[in-house]
Design brief:
single chain, 574 residues, 9-stranded mixed β-sheet, 20 helices, 15% strand, globular
Length: 574
């Protein structure tokens, strides 16, 4: 009886009648957690390191003090090496005492636990006593203890259960499930269930079914456990170059689609917008190093010699039937050489294509420049997914200009402002304000908003929004101040209609809506260039609408109305 009063009975973890935490059927008994588990090295290596440090510091200090005693030097006069030795001695001593002290305390606690268990197991069965809740046991440390553990999926087969247990135990690597099972959907489900058991999270709200996981294998995403849903809105029609386009935009920002749609309406009622693609070339810039700057300059001169370009182009163009080398721009930094290759890539965005061509050229150059050390296939002079002046000046991908003349009546009726206010706002905000901020390619109101939304909807690389959103917005009064000329110049729109995420079902449907799905059968690259023009046209519409809202002082009011969660359907109608 005394034992039962001192120690509460431990309810079996698997028994729900005692209110304890449910134990996973497949999980092994939890190992004791030791403080030494937090060390970055195996414990035996750490012990040897600190033991050697302790002995070495002690021997060094003893020898120094012996020399001081013989030389009649006061022991309290310490040099820098002696200070380091004393600190090392104290630190290693603290570690060793702490380590063995922890082990001793844990051994004592373990022996007491075993004695308690033995006494309890030998005691007569008592009346059922409800065990305290996990929150009552450890209210401070176990903050998540009250949360129920994820329930086991009853639809899991015995074969899948065995694989899940193997993944949880670390015996089967999660990344190998697709190749071993030959079923991408099944692999994603097993990986998801294993992750549930490892993390204790249920992933409610993240759908698993309804997606073709085979379509992303080896090209879009690794280790999938589900997919994220994003709403897609339609802005338009955008009247561009005499054709109407309904622009898909995947976004969670309220007002964005509505604002772009208003800009499209203003453009359409003024006769439409026109666009021109100035350049079309993807870039890749490897970095190489030579023993001297003179040797690096020799290769620079070789690459820039016009007579050598044809030979280099033949080597480069072997990578693809669409890849065509356009030019090479070199830059020197000490003995490092950066070679920026630019080439056309058809309807693909072209990063892989240009990289293959560059690798062919590097292999060719190594025959004549055997002292060349290839540092990286990409030396950041490209420049990909980073704001860079070289993209702003030289362009990357598609360089597009889009313009429109908005009638004065449309400015007042649709945009709810006036031409002088728009011109002044654009100069003070987009031009002067961006200059004060030291902006690089950011002389616009919100080009990245539209670019990101279209990129996600059409399967582009969202990270390339960084350089693709480089844009300068210009506005000026024309026709004696009665009309508004507005334009956007975007030097580095990086898009493609084949490859990557463009082949996924949802993204492919959005490309089909724009009439640019897949490769152009008539003119290679025509669909990708058209998509770039649509992106620029949508940016033009978005710039026009947002600047009008700012000029009229309607921005905050609009966001309060449309960018708040509500069930009021009248907002959509308005």
């Amino acid at each position: 009886m005394e034992v039962r009063r001192r120690f509460q009975p431990r309810a079996p973890a698997a028994s729900p009648s005692h209110g304890g935490l449910a134990r996973r059927p497949s999980a092994a008994p939890a190992a004791r957690v030791q403080a030494s588990d937090a060390l970055p090295l195996p414990i035996r290596h750490t012990n040897l390191l600190f033991s050697a440090f302790f002995v070495g510091s002690l021997v060094f200090l003893m020898r120094r003090w012996r020399e001081k005693v013989r030389s009649s030097i006061p022991l309290h006069l310490l040099g820098l090496s002696e200070i380091f030795a004393i600190v090392g001695l104290i630190a290693s001593l603290i570690y060793l005492l702490s380590f063995f002290g922890i082990a001793f305390v844990q051994s004592v606690v373990s022996s007491h636990d075993e004695e308690d268990d033995f006494l309890l197991s030998g005691a007569a069965p008592a009346a059922p006593v409800s065990s305290p809740s996990p929150a009552a046991i450890c209210p401070l440390l176990c903050t998540d203890a009250a949360a129920p553990a994820p329930q086991k999926n009853p639809n899991i087969t015995a074969d899948d259960e065995e694989i899940i247990s193997s993944v949880v135990a670390g015996k089967t690597p999660s990344y190998a499930l697709e190749s071993r099972l030959g079923d991408c959907r099944r692999a994603a489900g097993i990986r998801r269930e294993a992750l549930k058991r490892i993390t204790g999270r249920a992933f409610e709200g993240l759908p698993l079914d309804g997606f073709d996981y085979a379509s992303i294998l080896g090209q879009c995403c690794e280790l999938p456990v589900g997919y994220v849903q994003l709403p897609v809105g339609i802005a338009g029609p955008l009247l561009l170059d005499g054709s109407q386009h309904y622009v898909p935009m995947a976004t969670t920002e309220g007002c964005l689609v509505a604002s772009t749609n208003r800009g499209c309406k203003a453009i359409a009622e003024s006769g439409g917008a026109t666009s021109v693609v100035l350049r079309d070339g993807m870039t890749r810039a490897p970095a190489v190093r030579f023993p001297s700057a003179r040797r690096a300059a020799d290769l620079k001169a070789f690459l820039e010699e016009p007579n050598n370009f044809e030979t280099i182009a033949l080597v480069f163009n072997r990578s693809s039937r669409f890849a065509r080398l356009q030019g090479i721009h070199c830059a020197l930094a000490g003995r490092n050489l950066y070679m920026r290759f630019s080439c056309s890539t058809g309807d693909a965005m072209g990063m892989n294509m240009v990289s293959k061509g560059v690798q062919n050229v590097l292999d060719y150059l190594e025959k004549d420049f055997d002292d060349m050390d290839i540092i990286s296939i990409s030396g950041n002079f490209c420049s990909d997914k980073k704001p860079a002046a070289v993209n702003w000046i030289e362009g990357r991908g598609k360089s597009v200009v889009c313009e429109a003349v908005i009638k004065e009546a449309v400015v007042k009726k649709v945009l709810k402002t006036n031409i002088p206010a728009l011109v002044e706002l654009n100069m003070i905000k987009n031009l002067a304000g961006s200059a004060v901020a030291g902006s690089l390619g950011g002389f616009n109101a919100h080009a990245s908003n539209i670019v990101s939304a279209i990129y996600i909807a059409t399967g582009q690389d969202p990270a390339q929004n960084v350089e693709s959103s480089h844009c300068i917005t210009m506005m000026e009064a024309v026709n004696d101040g009665k009309d508004l000329h507005v334009s956007v110049t975007m030097p580095s729109i990086e898009v493609g209609t084949v490859g990557g995420g463009t082949q996924l079902a949802s993204q492919s449907a959005c490309l089909d809506l724009l009439g640019v799905k897949g490769a152009s059968l008539d003119t290679p690259g025509a669909n990708a260039r058209r998509l770039a023009s649509v992106v620029a046209g949508a940016v033009l519409a978005g710039e026009l609408s947002l600047l009008s809202a700012l000029a009229a002082g309607q921005l905050v009011k609009s966001h309060m109305k449309y960018n708040r969660s509500t069930k009021d359907l009248s907002k959509s109608a308005s």
